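Encode chain A's predicted structure.
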Amino acid sequence: MFKITSAVALSAALALSGCGKSSSSGSGELKIGFMGDLSGPDSAIVIPPKTGAQLAIDQYNKTNPKQKIKLVPYDTQGKENQAAALAPKAIKTDKIVAMIGPAFSGESKAADGILEKGKIPNLTPSATNPSLSGNGWKYWHRMVATDSAQGAGIVDFMVKAKTPKKAYVINGKKAYSVGIGDSALATFKAKGINVQRDQIDETASDYSSTVTKVKAFAPDVIFYGGYYSEGGKLLKQLRDQGVKALWASGDGALDAQLIQGAGAQQAEGAILGCPCFIPFGQQTDPTLIKFVSDYKALSGKDPVIYATEGYDAATAIIAAIKAGNTTGEKINNFLKTYDTKGVSKQIKWGANGELGATTIHIYEVKQGALTWLGTSDQAKLG
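Encoded structure for chain A:
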């Protein structure tokens, strides 16, 4: 057990269409960017992969290479227009050679086309919307499973655990939230379960309209697609109104702040799925043991969601640089051949930037903390 205590994009992309090559800075350092919500309401999902990436870079720099690497942060605060505005700066002004991120799906849609035009390889540690790989981007890579796999895996687990007759899907308006909600809804329908759906406004503080609909429908299980910042409030309001159905959500809600937002009693028994394995407790894999120790030495905290993916993303870029590739185009060509067991999983991408194999993990809130139950095909409620 562990405690996890638009239009702007288009114009910017056109402006960058001629800047094909990135280069190292005059200081002798190559710059790798990290883009995501580093200070906004859902930053707890993004800071761990940034720390993981920084760890990999620190370890590399300590080997005293001829050309060191600097990690440059780009804080989107989770805002799509901010991601689109920061991407040109990263390419033209800072001259990065690769980008880790953007972290979220909406900001990925806003910024990835710009990075593509700038010929900047970008590796997202956590954006899960399935449509991202359908854009024909050649410089884009994903470190995790999509919402299609995640939503289906979590629903499969819920159905095995509760054999429900009725289900309710709730999601926010953000790209990630809608995508994983779509997947959950489709999976419930495919299993012949009576299902209803509603959407909330993430910026609101009161979800009584949705809570009233859910209570009237009296579902056996509830799937929520969204982030912990509103998920905790929604869960609390449902429980306060006597809704006792099994409640589950995806990686966007996998943080201790969900428990804090709902209250420990109201969050008890909540299920969180993720295409990530969080290394906690007694590890037997020497690589994981070292990663956990090194991560904690750097941050003073245990690694949590997507820390391993951030580390593996940086490691892949570092491997390209070690092989003598110092421009975005050459790094991207190297990544096409990359096939390595990382701390998170085997890292090998197909032509569309998707990983060859992925796994969904299931966690449960028990006594105010998160417990790993296992993979979605093997996990059982405690």
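The mean pLDDT is 91.
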